[in-house]
Amino acid sequence: PEKRPSSGGIWYGGRGEGDSERGQGREGDQDTLGPPRPLEEGPCQRRAPPRGWGTPVGGGGLAPSTKIARAPSKPSKTSIEGVLKAVGRSASGGAARVEAQGEAKRRVAGKQVEEERRAGGAAHLAREDSTQDASSRLAPEGWVNAVSERMPQREGPRMSINVSLARSSKTILSMVARNLNWIEREREETRACLHWVVTPEELEGRLLVRKPNQRMSRIPGMYMLCGKVKFAELFRLLQRREPDKYNFIPRTGIVPDDPEEELRSIVGKGYGILKPDEGTQGDGIYLVKDMEEIKRRMDCIHVESAVLQSYIKKPMLLDGHKFDFRVYVLILSLEPLRVFLSHEGLVRVCTVPYEEPSRQNLHRKAGHLTNYTLNKTNEFYEHNDDPQNGARGTKRNLQATLRHLARQGHDAEDLWMQIKNITGLVSGALGRAVRGEVEGFDRSKLWPLGVYRTAKMSGCKTPFGDPSWEGWERDCFHVLGFDVMFDEGGKAWLLEVNCNPSMAIDTVYPSTSPPELPHLDEGVEALVSEAMGHVRGKGVHVCKCTAHHRPHLHRPCPIDLAAKHSCVNGALSIIHRDYSARKAGAFASPEELAEGLRYDVIFSEA
Predict the structure, then answer these.
(1) Do the Cβ atoms of 144 and 521 come closer than 8 Å?
(2) A Pfam family this protein belongs to (predicted)?
(3) Best label site of 295, 508, 562, 584, fewest CB within 10 Å?
């Protein structure tokens, strides 16, 4: 790993393109994480440590010979393993009862699903015959166990989570909470170890009444920092200082702040992508050719500011279609800054075959933009409900798709290392910006003090970093969504970072009769059966909501369940371990926190 003097932390990603040995950073060593090779020799198998490295830490990763886990000011001599075992004894007595109850629920759910199948009333999705070889499939221990296995009862005191403000994340949080044997609270009260909030106003409300060691699911300032304009301001500043280090962000201009000459040069002889500052789900995004069109589109979408990003006109394609990766990153805390990358994620594929942009096809957004909201209503949207199949579907599993790309001749290991490199560098920069450590960047502008936006986002009442928030740098965490695209040469480009990535697990079918469900692995099928009770219409009643312009059915999406259950399950497990260790007066290193989970440490100051 490389030490970054600007932060004092250790960065676990590969080297940048300007360095001589890109990809020499710490690689994951869990069971089936990372890019594909044949399962018996994948890059995620444990390897001999490179020269200059120490012994594995807790079995979860290789540690540098220099210590990276610094104890707090009053270090405890108790080992983290001993602490976790000690504090877990109180919970272990109920483990058998909990497991028995869970097994009973699974049997009941299985009988209900079987009855629905025989009656023809349950919606089950059709699956094409697969001829993929064994190496193209995710190993059961790498995926099924990751989403269905109950965490060991040694993890510490029983946790509780408040989901009263979780919105669309509530379903996946409830499923994971039950899997981890957490207590779920649904009223707006202070009694919970962890509160899941969304907006800055909700976060401020919880911070003002927060109890010691209580965790919050948002980091103050991250909401606005991940907006298109603030993000562009930060990384243009960093690119000027270290252009080779941050060479993975497409050239970006700010409208209307930047001179017209600079905006014209971004478009050049090709096209640019205009994105509104607070746009989400593809709303207000346009391909533009010149300044006149930029001005016309700005008037059309009624926004004060936007960014203009150079268009990657020769992207890597999947069977002739443009695609990108959605990967999930957990920032566990700012003090110390600790960042983890989930092994599971999504691949979003355009529904229309790719053509280089021209006046004739600019209106065909489904051929240029991968957003699910834009593509789900297209007649060519293809449902893929097998998380182990990376060769088909408009939405696919990340690891399965990497294996598919490897079979097509791409260096999937290098693709994964570039993703780790980008997420590690960007997360470190975001953390330093929120802490006010980036010279020339004012963090006070990241907080909507008295700024009215909507009735539910009427502005905050306390200034950024108010003393009443004591301990927020240590107790606030954040799950971010990174959108990464590769060009035809295999170079990764970071398109944007989402501060509130969707954790919804349903998909829509424009149909009045339920489709058939494919034969899934036992663990996946159990998740789908459990999720069925949470989706609108229970998967069998026709709906006419705004999710689709035609009458439709809502069904659990196995692809979303695979990625998001693994992401949230691992994130909450890491938080639980950190919470338990601190409550016992001990300190857990990032490697110990991630041990046995489908997460990699990608940046650490601990």
Answers:
(1) yes
(2) TTL
(3) 295
Rg (CA), the chain: 24
Residue 531 has φ and ψ, to the nearest 5°, of -70, -25
How many whole angstroms from its chain centre is CA 465?
26
Measured between alpha carbons, how far is 551 from 558 in angstroms, rounded to an integer?
22
Q: In Å, how far from its chain's centre is CA 537?
A: 27
**Three-state SS for 431?**
helix
Listed by start position, the domains of the chain span: 1-148+324-435+465-606
pLDDT in tens, 385-398: 899 999 999 999 99
For the cut 90, the answer to whether the pLDDT of residue 324 exceeds it is: yes
Dist. CA 538–CA 591, nearest whole Å: 40
90-113: b (≥16 Cβ within 10 Å) or e: ebeeeeeeeeeeeeeebeebeeeb
User: What's the one-letter identity of residue 96?
Assistant: A
Q: Which of 77, 6, 19 is CA-nearest to residue 584?
A: 77
467 burial level (CB within 10 Å; 0-12, 13-18, 19+)? exposed
Cα 415 to its chain centre, rounded Å, is 17
- Say if residue 107's pLDDT is above 60: no
Q: How far apart are the first and last CA of the chain?
A: 14
Strand partners, 307: 254, 275
Quick one: which of 401, 399, 379, 387 has its CA closest to 518?
387
What are the C-alpha distances in Å from 498 to residues 247, 272, 374?
Answer: 20, 20, 17
Report how far residue 282's alpha carbon sits from residue 350's, in angstroms, rounded to the nearest whole number: 13
**Tokens found for residue 265:** 């040069």
Evaluate whether 491 touches 17 at the Cβ level (below 8 Å). yes
Confidence of residue 578 (pLDDT cuts 50, 70, 90): very high
pLDDT score recorded for residue 525: 81
**Structure-block tokens of residue 92:** 């272990």
| C-alpha span between 581 and 571 (Å, rounded) | 16
Cα 569 to Cα 501: distance, rounded to the nearest angstrom: 16
Per-residue model confidence as pLDDT tens digits over 243-270: 999 999 999 999 999 999 999 999 988 8
- Three-state DSSP at 216 gives strand
